[in-house]
């Protein structure tokens, strides 16, 4: 592969990565905690989109538990959406770069 081809490929990779990153807002994931009593939905940009709380949990005595469940559901959703986002970026650049051991594009997310 000559240098001009390599630069062309890198430009295409950059373009596809930019497109994929822009599409991350459409990638969503929901995390649940407390057997589904608390649900948090996030997008691939790691923005919280929605928090759903079962009405039975909204009691003054359960405030601390509710806070813990929200944190757990949010963390689960963030973890799940990161996996989806990484896969989407991988698919967007598939076949553009040679398989180079140790090349990690995760930092581009």
Structural features, described:
The structure is a single chain. The protein has about 110 residues and is an alpha+beta fold. It has a domain at about 35-85: Ybab, Chain: A, CATH 3.30.1310. The chain is about 50% helix and about 15% strand. The protein is built from 2 helices and 3 strands; from the N terminus they run H-E-E-E-H. The protein has helices at about 5-25, 65-95; strands at about 30-35, 40-45, 50-55. The chain has a 3-stranded antiparallel β-sheet. A hairpin with a 4-residue loop joins strand 1 and strand 2 (about 40-45). The protein is rod-shaped and about 70 Å long. About 10% of the residues are buried.
Supply database-style keywords.
3-stranded antiparallel β-sheet, 109 residues, alpha+beta, Ybab, Chain: A, 17% strand
Layout of SSEs?
Blueprint: H1 3-23, E1 28-33, E2 38-43, E3 48-53, H2 63-93
Antiparallel strand pairs: 1-2, 2-3
Helix pairs in contact: 1-2
The helix/strand order is HEEEH
Largest sheet: 3 strands, antiparallel
Total of DSSP H or I helical runs spanning 4+ residues: 2
Share of helical residues: 40-55%
Spell out the CATH superfamily of the domain at 37-86.
Answer: Nucleoid-associated protein YbaB-like domain
Total E-strand runs: 3
Please state roughly what percent of the residues sit in beta strands, choosing from under 5%, 5-15%, 15-25%, 25-35%, 35-45% or over 45%. Answer: 15-25%
Please give the alpha-carbon distance between the first and last residues: 27 Å
Question: Averaged pLDDT, please?
Answer: 81
Shape: rod-shaped
What's the CATH class of the domain at 37-86, please?
Answer: Alpha Beta
Gyration radius, rounded: 19 Å
CATH topology of the domain at 37-86: Ybab, Chain: A
What structural class is derived from the secondary structure elements? Answer: alpha+beta
Spans of 5+ residues with little confidence (pLDDT < 50)?
A: none
- By oligomeric state, this entry counts as single chain
CATH architecture of the domain at 37-86: 2-Layer Sandwich
Major sheet strand order: 1-2-3
Function: Binds to DNA and alters its conformation. May be involved in regulation of gene expression, nucleoid organization and DNA protection.
Protein name: Nucleoid-associated protein SAMN06269250_3639
Coiled coil: 3-30
Pfam family, one: YbaB_DNA_bd
């Amino acid at each position: 592969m000559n240098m001009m081809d390599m630069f062309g490929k890198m430009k295409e990779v950059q373009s596809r990565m930019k497109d994929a990153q822009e599409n991350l807002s459409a990638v969503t994931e929901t995390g649940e905690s407390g057997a589904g009593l608390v649900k948090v939905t996030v997008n691939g940009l790691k923005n919280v989109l929605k928090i759903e709380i079962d009405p039975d949990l909204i009691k003054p005595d359960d405030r601390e538990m509710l806070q813990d469940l929200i944190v757990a559901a949010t963390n689960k959703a963030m973890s799940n959406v990161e996996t989806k986002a990484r896969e989407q970026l991988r698919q967007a650049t598939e076949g553009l770069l040679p398989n180079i051991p140790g090349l990690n594009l995760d930092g581009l997310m």
